[in-house]
Amino acid sequence: MILSRFKNITIRQWVLIISLLPLVLITLLLGSYFIHTQLQDTENSLRERGESMSHLMASAAEFGLITDNKEMLASLIRHPNKDIDVADIVFLNSDFNVVLRSDQYGSDIRQDLNYPHFTDKYIFFLQPVTATGIDVLDSPEFTDSTGVEARPPQIGWVAVVLSRVHTQHRQQEIILKGISIALVGLFFTLFIAIRFGRRITTPILRITEVVEQLEKGQLDVRSPHEATGELKTLSRGINRLAQRVQESNQTLESQVNRATTRLRSTLVHLERQNLALSAARKKADGANRTKDDFLARMSHELRTPLTSVLGFSRLLDKTDLRPEQKEYTRIINQTSSLLLSIIDDILDFSKLQSNAIKLEKLSLNIDSLVSDIIEMQAPAAHAKGLELIPLVAPDIPADLHGDPMRLRQILTNLVSNAIKFTDHGHVAIRVYQEKQSEDSSTLLFEVEDTGVGIPKSRIRNLFQAFTQADNSITRKFGGSGLGLVIARLLSELMGGSIELNSEENNGTTVSVYIPMYCPESQVIPATYHGGQVLIFDQHPLNRRNLKNQLSHLAPKPISITTCEEMLRRQSEQEISTIVWGLEPNATRSSTFAEELRIVCAQYQGPLILLACEPPELALPENITVLRKPTRTGNLLSAVLPDRFDAPENEYSEKEVELPLRILVAEDNDFNRLLITRILEQAGAEVVTSTNGEDAIKYEQKETFDLILMDVHMPKVDGIQATSAIRQRNKEIPIIALTANVVASEHQRLIHAGANTVLLKPINDQEVKTAINALTQKTALATRTPSETSSNAQMLEDYQISKDLLHQELLDQLKGLFTGFEDRSSEKMRHHSHQLLGLAGLYELPELEMVGIELNRAIKQDNIRQTWDALWRLQRMVEHSQYQF
Fold it and tell me: Long-range contact list for 208-215, CB < 8 A, 24+ apart?
């Protein structure tokens, strides 16, 4: 604040300050000094008078006090009392009693004070009176025994009291005169400073005004030649500068006018180009939208016949075929699956290019996510004799938040590529924690293979769309060349990055860095104490993976590399469990059968076999077979069956143990019939309801083992019903069924209380597997994966005819037309929802697309689009223009 004020001081004020400040300071210092000196002089003069008077009065009063002659004493004080500064004179005897006083001051004189004693109005002086008239120097009787001369006797005291009033008046006069003289000096100094300051500041101010006018653009202004000396030189320099600037400005104006003329013509040309570019951009945006619509429609159009091809090829596999015919069906399955993969890649790439993918932030477990990917890719890897190995670091937090679907898509693409280009060796997924902060964790996912590798000269081209390392690769392995591009775009969308390192004939490693939100509260894994576990696997990465999975056991597991060492170890020390990892295709070799016979003859404890395919041998009861690679939970359950539920052999047949009582809440009659048939044939007792309100009432009155809940139902929807049931019953498992793939709806279902969410179309095996997992007992019979059939076959399996489905579609179409004639949007929305559910359930993409358009037109209350969609729907249903 003070500095800003100093910045605003003008030059005239600075001149005055510089001129006045030294003079003012000198005047004040000198005036103060002289005033202080005069004041001290008057004060000292009064004090000296008092001391001199008290001494004189003490000398003169000696005889009067000895003879007690008051008249003599009175004569001594008569003359001093006439002085206006003398307030009182007091004579006291040796006992300090008053002998005589002038009575002008009535206060008592005290002996215990220090004299001279000062008060506001008076000064007190006290002087002793001693007997000095007799010479006692030669008289020995007046000396003490020590030979020291005795002090003269004290015969009394004289007190003189002087008034300070008159002195103070004189001091005030001195101060007033000093201030007056100082003010006169200051005014004179100010006059001189202003007089001479104007001679300096006036020319400077005029020059300043000229500069300000020049700054405003008034270049014809000049400074007058009134100044002298240096200021006159400055004034001339400013005038010359102004003249040159004026000339330069005129030159620049002429140049600017010429440039402006050229610029106007250029802007006209640019405006025309911008209009052309804008039109081209609109055309390109329209073409992109048309491309996206075309890709979406073509994907459905291509998926429909491909689904039929795959379904019928699976049906052919179940018939008696010659080896040559089985090879044909295998080729059909392989090429159809490849074509579906290419279609998915093209759609994903199109969405990424148009920024149509939105990330979700959901809770995920890295170990479970990697296990899901491994289980999905394991058959392809084992068919080529490859080891598929997950290596998840034990220090990765169990609870992270990210987009599990997109992360799964990235890793699935990379693992699928690694398996495709690897003929022998292994494919490994390594997961490390690269760095961690307070609320985030950056994970490093490495997909490593021992495949053919890529030349360094071709690596940079791999992340470009529709590009592969070699044109011959497309002919040999197939593919669209979009896998790595999609992985790069998705990783960048998630805030991460991707790198690729490869050497020809030495394999490839793809590294993906993904940042994730890490909550502060994490569950600390417990340590499980048990017996010594022995890990036997010939592959070092498999041994490392198994040690990671069993890292929370105490004591730590021991890993070995040969069957002979395994036999030696179990004979030397007590081994509680042996975990034996088999190589791909090892169960078919005679060597494995012989080694297993030897081990079983010497070791009768728990033996866990990790196999890529089920052994063809009859196994003792102490052997548990798990699919390789196995999940951590399954492995811990097998190693510590007393702490966890012991798993069954994953390759054994599952039988019906106990019937389940299941409540099915589904508003679509046909869907409800299909789900009922699936569950009843699996051995369950089924109770059905058509809306969420009835489902809540059933759950309150009866007891069920599990609830299957559709999401979109009348009265009370599935989310509301799930929440109401969960508030009353915290234990009952609830499976939600929905055709919506949006993750936010899945989160709402989980938040409402659903244990898991299954997507339509319904897969009977997925439904029964989920029920078995949630009820913790193998209560429903399931087929092996090879027995999974298409939806057309599923209708036949559960004795539901296609004619019945066709009739259901006709009923829904009739309800739609009735609602259209009655102008009832609610009725049309109800039947369009039913029809969409049927189309999604049985994979009828043509009906699904028209149903989506119809539903959108109904919501927008667009009568023309509604009628057009109804007419197309009628033609499709009545003429059976849809395929399973």
Answer: 208/11, 210/238, 210/242, 211/238, 214/238, 214/242, 214/245
- Whole-angstrom distance, CA of residue 336 vs CA of residue 321: 20
Angle at 320 between CA 318 and CA 324, to 5 degrees: 105
User: What pLDDT band is residue 139 in, cutting at 50, 70 and 90?
Assistant: very low
The phi, psi pair for 225, rounded to 5°, reads -95, 60
Half-sphere exposure of 694 (CA within 13 A, CB side): 13
C-beta contacts of 232-239 below 8 A and 24+ residues apart: 234/207, 235/203, 235/207, 238/207, 238/210, 238/211, 238/214
Round to whole Å and give the CA distance between 641 and 877: 55
- Location of structure tokens 């399973």: 884
Backbone angles phi, psi at 559, to 5 degrees: -110, 140
Helix axes 802-821, 825-841, angle to 10 degrees: 160
24-35 residue pLDDT tens = 788 788 888 888
Q: Residue 333: which residues within 8 A CB-CB, separation 6 or more?
A: 310, 313, 314
Helix (H, G, I), strand (E, B) or coil at 715: coil
Looking at the predicted structure, is the pLDDT value of residue 104 above 80? no
| Tally of CB atoms within 10 A around 791 | 19
| Three-class secondary structure of residue 806 per DSSP | helix
Name the token pair of 8: 């605003």
Q: How many CB atoms lie within 10 A of CB 186?
A: 16
- Show Cβ contacts of residue 123 under 8 Å, excluding neighbours closer than 6 positions: 46, 47, 50, 116, 117, 161, 162, 164
**Which pLDDT belongs to residue 471?**
46
Q: How far is CA 402 from CA 316, 405, 443, 625, 686, in A?
A: 42, 9, 11, 34, 38
Distance CA 643, CA 637 (A): 7
Instruction: Report residue 875 as tokens.
Output: 């033609």
Distances (CA, A) of 785 to 262, 305, 379, 563, 762: 77, 23, 11, 32, 15
Which residue do the tokens 């499976």 mark?
A: 735
pLDDT bin (cut points 50, 70, 90) of residue 790 is very low
Could you give the maximum distance between any two Cα atoms of the chain, in Å?
170
- Do 771 and 659 meet the contact criterion of CB atoms below 8 Å apart? no
Q: For residue 759, give both structure tokens.
A: 């997507």
- For residue 858, count CB atoms less than 10 angstroms from its CB and return exposed for 0-12, middle for 13-18, buried for 19 or more: buried
Query: Which of 680, 659, 713 lies closest to 800, judged by CA?
Result: 680
State if pTM tops 0.70.
no
- Is the pLDDT reported for residue 439 higher than 50? yes
Burial class (CB in 10 A: 0-12, 13-18, 19+), 60: middle
Indicate if the alpha-carbon torsion angle 839, 843, 847, 850 is positive or negative. positive
Contact 47, 118 (CB under 8 A): no
Q: Which two tokens stand for residue 574?
A: 């007590």
CA distance 769 to 753: 20
Q: How far apart are CA 304 and CA 621, in angstroms?
A: 47
792 three-state secondary structure? helix
Q: What pLDDT, in 10s, does the model give residues 480-521?
A: 566 788 788 888 888 999 988 888 888 899 999 999 988 876
263 sits in which H/E element: helix 230-317
868: tokens are 């057009």
Residue from 637, 641, 640, 604 nearest 623 by CA: 604
Contacts of 604 (CB under 8 A, 6+ apart): 622
- Please write down the long-range contacts of 120-124, taking CB distance under 8 Å and 24 or more positions apart: 120/164, 121/163, 121/164, 121/165, 122/87, 122/161, 122/162, 122/163, 122/164, 123/46, 123/47, 123/50, 123/161, 123/162, 123/164, 124/159, 124/160, 124/161
Find out whether 426 and 387 touch, Cβ atoms under 8 Å. Answer: yes
Nearest 10 degrees: Cα torsion 363, 366, 369, 373: 150
**Is 579 exposed, middle or buried, given 0-12, 13-18 or 19+ CB atoms closer than 10 A?**
buried
